[in-house]
């Protein structure tokens, strides 16, 4: 029963808990056993509170027995990303300065998840300050990929994605500036949604006007990610941009799945290299090109096309570097060794920018958003690689070459997701297939602004075509 429970979907588990076919304690113990068995190898969960989780599970069971109202996530175990503040639980941001930091309050999305009945188990690993798409830091070391422990789990929500893939939890929270939900989802054969900015309120940082970073859900399936997404969404007075209303469309998202036949007549833009802007590994293309053909065979109108991304590179890098300098520039000046070398370089780049540079980047983003709106009058969906590479060796800081093209820095291999970031669109990675070596590859799906729920339903329909979401890791399971 234990092994069966850890890979039940979140939607199914939530139903079993409400019907009292299983207890929250049983579900928790099954996941704790799996963490105990595999986390020493995978290193996805870096802080663990078994005693607190058991007490919360017992209380969850009491509520069910007493017939008290329960939330949609009642009894589901979750460890939160280690950049999300969790009251009374260590939150390190992957940085030595915060090794023993214990916040007094929860971030808003954390509180919403707990209010919905989830059981807090611990924290999942991140890169230093979540900067980068490979999860390693000087506090906890590297997170390994459950499909091949010698490979990266991606990042920055790499601990979250690996925890899902390894059966440590059925849902996970993450965040995404340049692909931090999409890249690890691709590497670990799970779903990660970067929501439209404003869907999940930005109340956890110092700047509600910064549009690049958003929190979002992860799950082993689109339906599970949709279940968590509904809990995370909703306006907040602390974020003036969180204006999207909650409504029946999002509430129905886990249940009203499309079928593969519903792809017929959809207008799909296929952008395997984002219009020739990025190099992509042949191993990635060998997985996603047949999937594009499969959608066309179902009757979708699939064309080689891409939204206008001209200037997106500059917009993303300027705004990202400026925010890094604002957050950490003074600390770096006083403590030159406080940051890893590539993050320190990125902070210094921000310090060289002028106010004019930042405003021009914002103007460039405005143009991109307006152009994207016109593009989605012609298309229903964009499909593209979620990552330019397959999972690489865990001991490598970052890839330095793709198909013979030399990369200049630690951001170059992440462009497949981050070039879409300044357009303000919802984007997700959904499992698409595996390389001959058994490494996962995700398909990036991008929709019109505000179409997050529809995008999740399309991903759910795609899962019936690709049929790889149910493929469990063998690299960790055999150990």
From TrEMBL:
UniProt xrefs under InterPro entries: Amidase, Amidase_CS, Amidase_dom, AS_sf
Amidase domain span: 26-456
Lineage per the UniProt record: Bacteria, Bacillati, Actinomycetota, Actinomycetes, Micrococcales
Protein name, per record: Amidase family protein
Protein's organism: Arthrobacter ramosus
Gene3D superfamilies the UniProt entry points to: Amidase signature (AS) domain (3.90.1300.10)
């Amino acid at each position: 029963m234990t092994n069966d429970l850890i890979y039940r979907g979140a939607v199914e588990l939530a139903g079993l808990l409400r019907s009292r076919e299983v207890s929250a304690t049983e579900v928790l113990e099954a996941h704790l056993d799996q963490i105990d068995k595999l986390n020493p190898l995978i290193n996805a969960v870096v802080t663990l509170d078994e005693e607190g989780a058991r007490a919360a599970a017992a209380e969850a069971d009491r509520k069910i027995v007493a017939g008290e109202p329960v939330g949609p996530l009642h009894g589901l175990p979750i460890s939160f990303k280690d950049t999300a503040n969790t009251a009374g639980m260590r939150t390190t941001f992957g940085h030595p300065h915060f090794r023993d930091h214990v916040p007094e309050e929860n971030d808003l999305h954390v509180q919403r998840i707990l209010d919905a009945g989830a059981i807090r188990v611990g924290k999942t690993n991140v890169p230093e300050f979540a900067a980068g798409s490979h999860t390693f830091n000087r506090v906890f070391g590297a997170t390994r990929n459950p499909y091949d422990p010698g490979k990266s789990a991606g990042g920055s929500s790499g601990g979250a994605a690996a925890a899902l893939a390894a059966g440590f939890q059925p849902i996970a929270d993450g965040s995404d500036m340049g692909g931090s939900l999409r890249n690890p989802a691709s590497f670990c054969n799970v779903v990660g949604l970067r929501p439209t900015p404003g869907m999940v309120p930005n109340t956890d940082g110092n700047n509600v006007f910064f549009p690049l970073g958003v929190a979002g859900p992860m799950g082993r399936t689109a339906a599970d990610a949709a279940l968590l997404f509904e809990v995370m969404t909703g306006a907040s007075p602390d974020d003036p941009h969180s204006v999207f209303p909650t409504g029946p469309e999002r509430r129905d998202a886990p249940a009203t799945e499309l079928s593969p036949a519903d792809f017929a007549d959809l207008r799909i833009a296929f952008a395997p290299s984002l219009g020739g802007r990025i190099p992509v590994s042949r191993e990635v293309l060998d997985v996603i090109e047949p999937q594009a053909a499969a959608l066309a065979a179902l009757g979708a109108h699939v064309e080689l096309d891409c939204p206008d991304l001209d200037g997106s590179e500059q917009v993303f890098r300027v705004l990202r570097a400026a925010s890094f300098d604002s957050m950490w520039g003074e600390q770096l000046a006083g403590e030159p060794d406080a940051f890893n070398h590539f993050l320190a370089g990125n902070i210094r780049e921000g310090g060289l920018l002028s106010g004019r540079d930042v405003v021009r980047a914002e103007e460039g983003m405005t143009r991109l958003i307006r152009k994207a709106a016109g593009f989605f009058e012609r298309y229903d969906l964009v499909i593209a690689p979620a990552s330019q590479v397959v999972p690489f060796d865990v001991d490598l800081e970052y890839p330095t070459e793709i198909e013979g093209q030399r990369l200049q820095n630690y951001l170059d291999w992440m462009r497949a997701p981050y070039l879409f970031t300044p357009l303000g669109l919802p984007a997700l990675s959904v499992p698409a297939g595996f390389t001959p070596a058994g490494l996962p590859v995700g398909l990036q799906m991008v929709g019109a602004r505000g179409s997050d729920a529809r995008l999740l339903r399309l991903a759910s329909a795609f899962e019936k075509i690709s049929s790889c979401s149910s493929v469990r890791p063998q690299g960790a399971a055999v150990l």
